[in-house]
Predict the structure.
Amino acid sequence: EVHLVESGGGLVQPGGSLRLSCAASGFIFSDYAMSWFRQAPGKGREWVSGINRGGSTIYADSVKGRFTISRDNAKNTLYLQMNSLKPEDTAVYYCAKSRVPTWYSPTLGGHDYWGQGTQVTVSS
C-alpha cells in the first residue's frame, strides 16, 4: 500500500526557515513525479511545487525564489526547503504522489495518494 508521511512542520518566525520531509513507501518512488500542496485555514488545497522523475522542478508564483523542492530517491524521501517564510505561508502542508509515472499535472486530480499533512505556522 502507498503511504506518505510528512514531517518537519512547526512554529517559525517570519523570515525563518523550515524543511519539510515526506517519507514514501509502497510504490517505486523514483518513477513518479511528486508534489507539495498546502491548505490554509478557510481555503482550499493549493498546489505549491512539483518535481518530476528527472528532477525538474516547478513552483507556484507565491513561493518561487523562497521554496526549493527536492528528492532523494535512495531514501524514498521528498523535501521542501522553505526560506524567508511569511505569515501567509501558514498552512497544513501535504505531499502527494502523481497518478501515473508518464505525465504530471499540478492539480488535485493529478495526484492519487496524500500524506496526513504537517502544520506550518509562521508567526511572531
In short: The first strand starts at residue 3 and ends at 7. The chain has a mean pLDDT of 97. The CA atoms of residues 38 and 56 lie 20 Å apart.
